[in-house]
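Bug #77: duplicate submission created two jobs. Keeping one. Sequence:
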Amino acid sequence: MEELLKKRRTLQETMNFMAALSAGIEPILGRGANSMTMSAGRNLGRKFSEGARHTDDLLEAIEEVRRILVANSCLWGFEPFKPVDQHELVSVTENGARQVSLVFRDCMIRQALFRFGHPQQGSLCNMMYGFFAGALESIMGKKASLEIKHAGENACLKVLTVEA
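Kept job's structure:
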């Protein structure tokens, strides 16, 4: 456990550096910064999930993403969330896409942004979006997106959508 905490501290220091970089590139590149970090996250998600188990089940795919993150010393505390007005964890949209809400409680990116004093929902948050999209595309073989519904101090709520 001590080794895992040591790796987490090292990764968190790197994330703090990334937050500082983000603060510098966003004003210069504008919206291009978000595209750049999303693309980098997507590539990382694909790379990390190269040997992942393939599945068509969205909840199983989320668990595979969690396994991949832990295997790479990335401790993001998240879990599926069922809104009160929804009967199941996974819902289906009109066009057949599957969606699940995810609550992120322990997010290295959010912690780095707060430590640096940089606002949420910028380029580093888009890197996480890219990571999830890339990993799920590898695991499920379908396009995926992660939309931020709420970015808060204690947790963020996001909606993960996988196309039909």
